[in-house]
Amino acid sequence: MKKLHLHPGLAAFGALLSLSAAAHAAILLGNYPQINNNLSFSIGGQFQLAVSFTTPNQPYDVDSITLRLSDYTSALDTPAVGIYTDNADAPSTTLIGALFTNPNSPSTGINDFPFNANGSVPLSANTKYWMLVDASAGSFLWRASDSDNPNPRTPTGDATFGRFALSFDNGASYNDPNTAPYNFLHTFQINATAVPEPVHVSLAIGIALLAFAFYRRMMVAKRRET
Fold first, then answer.
1. What is the dihedral of CA 6, 12, 15, 21, to 10 degrees?
2. How far apart, in whole angstroms, are the C-alpha atoms of residue 42 and residue 47?
3. Quick check: 183 and 58 in contact, CB under 8 A?
4. Is 133 helix (H, G, I), strand (E, B) or coil?
5. How far apart are the first and last CA of the chain?
6. What is the pLDDT of residue 92?
7. Bridge partners of 143?
8. Mapping DSSP to helix (H, G, I), strand (E, B) and coil, where does residue 153 land?
9. pTM of the prediction?
10. Which residues of 194-210 are buried (b: 16+ CB within 10 A; e: fewer)?
11. Is 80 in a helix, a strand, or coil?
12. Alpha-carbon distance 14 to 208, whole Å?
């Protein structure tokens, strides 16, 4: 019976394939689709709204954030959406990367708006962060489903949901909106790519290099035989 040998080129390809699979796009946290649009919170002036989450045992790089907004026109309103570190269960002043790029909006209707990352937004594993929604000019409404609904859509994803936090004084202090009368579940989604750990990268590259070296030795030996 013939023995089945794995071609070294295939071994190298498999190692690199496993590396690429380790870096995958994912929903880091979100609660789409919305149940309804019954509630909203006005963002702008002294008013901010944030949501906390804790990353799993894996680093991520945030790709985009989707928010369900209304009364937002890009000609008049300037959102300031970013990811911040945690400070005693509230957003700190430390921004991760840069603020996200604001989408275009010609009307004030309810819509889902994608805010794309402006460069790398790296998140460490097992770490608490805040997505903060603010406005540097104008104002708009962040829509929410009523959490008294029989099927409230609590945020889920690769990360663990913490809480929503309201600020009425431009970030000097934050209140918990999940207590009456602020019983909101604001609609959002954080999209991110899981980043392979350095040890996994090194292992995959090492396997690929060893397989390639072995393959070259086999080719040299075969040429000598002929």
1. -110
2. 7
3. no
4. strand
5. 25
6. 97
7. 40
8. coil
9. 0.78
10. bbbeeeeeeebeebbee
11. strand
12. 8
Q: Say if residues 168 and 177 touch (Cβ distance below 8 Å).
A: no
Burial class (CB in 10 A: 0-12, 13-18, 19+), 1: exposed
193, 25 contact by CB (below 8 A): yes
Alpha carbons 160 and 56: distance in angstroms, whole number: 7
Residue type, 35: I
Q: How far apart (Å, rounded) are the C-alpha atoms in residues 218 and 77?
A: 65
Count of residues making up the chain = 226
Could you tell me which CATH class the domain 24-195 is placed in?
mainly beta
| Residue 181 or 69, more confident | 69
User: Higher confidence at residue 149 or residue 107?
Assistant: 107
- pLDDT given at position 67: 98
Q: What is the biggest distance separating any 2 CA atoms in the chain, rounded to whole angstroms?
A: 85
Per-residue model confidence as pLDDT tens digits over 12-40? 444 444 444 456 789 999 999 888 888 89
Give the position of tokens 């959102």. 79
List Cα–Cα distances, 21 to 29, 196, 200, 204, in angstroms: 20, 9, 11, 11
Six token digits for residue 57: 């045992």
Instruction: Match 């390809």 to its residue by tokens.
Output: 13
CA angle 93, 138, 184 (to 5 degrees): 70
